[in-house]
Amino acid sequence: MRIPNLILSYSLPPLLLLLASGLHWPCCAAKQSYVVYMGAHSHDPAKLSPLDFNRVTHSHYEFLGSFLGSSDAAKDSIFYSYTKHINGFAATLEEEVAAEIAKHPKVLSVFENRGRKLHTTRSWDFMGLEQNGKTPSNSIWKKARYGEGVIIGNLDTGVWPESKSFNDKGFGPIPSKWRGICHNGSDPTFHCNRKLIGARYFNKGYASVVGKLNSSLESPRDTEGHGSHTLSTAGGNMVPGVSVFGQGCGTAKGGSPKARVAAYKVCWPPVAGNECFDADIMAAFDVAIHDGVDVLSVSLGGSAAAFFNDSVAIGSFHAAKHGIVVVCSAGNSGPAEGSAENLAPWYITVGASTMDREFPSYVVLGNNLSLKGESLSAAKLAHKFYPIIKATDAKLPSARVEDAVLCQNGTLDPKKVKGKILLCLRGVNARVDKGEQALLAGAVGMVLANDKINGNEILADPHVLAASQVNFTDGVSVFDYINSTKFPVAYITHPKTLIHTKPAPFMAAFSSKGPNIIVPEILKPDITAPGVSVIAAYTEDEGPTNQMFDKRRIPYNSVSGTSMSCPHISGVVGLLKTMYPSWSPAAIKSAIMTTATTLDNEAEQLLNATNGKATPFGYGAGHVEPNRAMDPGLVYDTTINDYLNFLCALGYNETQISTFSEGGDYKCARNFSLLNLNYPSITVPNLSGSVTLTRTLKIVGAPATYNVRVQNPSGISIFVKPNILKFKKVGEEKTFEVTLKVKQGKATNNKYAFGKMIWSDGKHHVKSPIVVRAL
């Protein structure tokens, strides 16, 4: 699921008019990045204030400006200013300018910024599949031949077939197992090829709600962008020279870039808040299974429902029966507890977290306070201070304060806003819609301040006016500054691209969370992956904000949501399917979950957007580590019969289950407990005294002896029997018992506690989160 983005404008600046006319933003110009090293600072950074550091930065602007002609040009060029121990800066420069700077007596050296080449879907570098643009020998990409031979299907808004992400150059014949078609409907320009091997559309369920459809809705073409974005993230080609308005310049790529892909369009223009209807989803699942896909990526969902009333749960169960791995998004209703969607155990449910890339755009206040926000705005402000005003101070007399602070439509007085930077609060209406309202009211820029619930989660949006989104704490600082002076002023710097940021990842505030409200004994989501500011292919039928007023057209766009994290896992699944075609969907799921990490790039526990410690209700088993997933050692290989017994334990009768399973008369296992589903995580939602449950592990690596260790949840004792498992041959299975007991006198006040169970042979570490609530 994607976080909705809206943006303006009716009156486009000249640069945007060029984009609207069909010209694309120049990416990777002739300039290169260099480090200008000027030695060490003479000051003690511990004794300096932020204002002192700003002065150092200003001196760098002035120095470079003497070569470029102005400090403004220097500000656009410099993307790092080293202000503490090292004296110098990093900047984008022409080669001749760099050579001239190197001759200056204050400069010790100027050298090319090597090894920092950006890759647009930075997430794959962040997850270890590549390093500085190269694929290391231990990467799953090399081991899995980049997903060669796998077919990834996508249930979404269709596909933009002209995208370079779906070009078939270098691809051989279509796999013989493929039985799908390319149904272009009423669009004679739509085409498939040896990369995009199939496309279908399903709109009858939609038509039953909206009535007769026009011809534009009789095609698998993606006119919204969502489907192209998700499909290219899962299995798009490697495409160099990609950017979003000049930012994030690098190579776009999918998780399985050599996979074949197929689009199943089931989502259409929204009606009554819905855009993907169950009837269409079910039809797509049915056909996709027949077509021969290996993986289905499903970035859609709705309110949780009983499994037999859930088209995704039903369709994905049938897919799993045929060996197809289904991956679903968890939803964008976080950080509320119990908000996760797609809750069945037979597919992989994915939460969203950040990666180590930002698009910093600084808000500099008149008191010299510089606050780092983010943006992908193409518009630039002149390097000078502008008056800054709170939206509540610019409200129309007829508007409510609570609406005006959000910069909602019809709340702003142009007489008060014109020529100023407007401060808006995040919430209710879309982030870029606030920018539209600001621009229509005459603002030259916008500062978008997070509300408390979104904390540090910043999403880089392609605003039409100069804008920067800041976190909650910095937003408070802007409010305080405006209130502290009679003539508040500010300016907003043009965004840059910054990588290797820390801490990363942390959980996105929007990412939906557990506990599972349908079956509390199953932890959801299962895993987390990058879902914030992800750059991938897009439609060129609409602008990057999908609004009528946005006349810009770009082939790649930055979007956030669990819709974006879902296809990251789909891409990893594609690699594992290439390596292990005989593995069951459950084995692949287990490999991904049990090798995940719960640490960030500072080796600290994953955080949430408000800097608190995240829990398995947010990240599931942790953040995906693809290179570890290809060698998990052991797997929890849940069978279809296990799922059927699970349904029996939920209260479905044998007649229902027999019909559901297509396996004749099904007899439920006696006394099967929901706690005993052979799942890679353990969740006990109502522990009273003690309980014993079972799990079974299968060895998929070399025969070995595994020992167990447990991190006990607070107030809970856990005992594993046996605590040593000896595997003598590949494929051998061993069953063990886990007993959880409430410690005497250690009441948990009905709150969940979290722990971990780890089986290890010294090389492999098979990890399972443990979630317990004692009554």
TrEMBL record:
Signal peptide: 1-30
Domain Subtilisin-like protease fibronectin type-III: 676-772
Superkingdom as given in the UniProt entry: Eukaryota
Domain Inhibitor I9: 33-119
Keywords: Glycoprotein, Hydrolase, Protease, Secreted, Serine protease, Signal
Residue stretches making up the Peptidase S8/S53 domain: 147-608
Domain PA per the UniProt entry, residue ranges: 406-475
Compartment(s) of residence: Secreted
Active-site residues from the entry: D156, H226, S563
Family recorded in the similarity comment: Belongs to the peptidase S8 family.
Protein name per Swiss-Prot or TrEMBL: Subtilisin-like protease SBT5.3
Gene label: AIR3
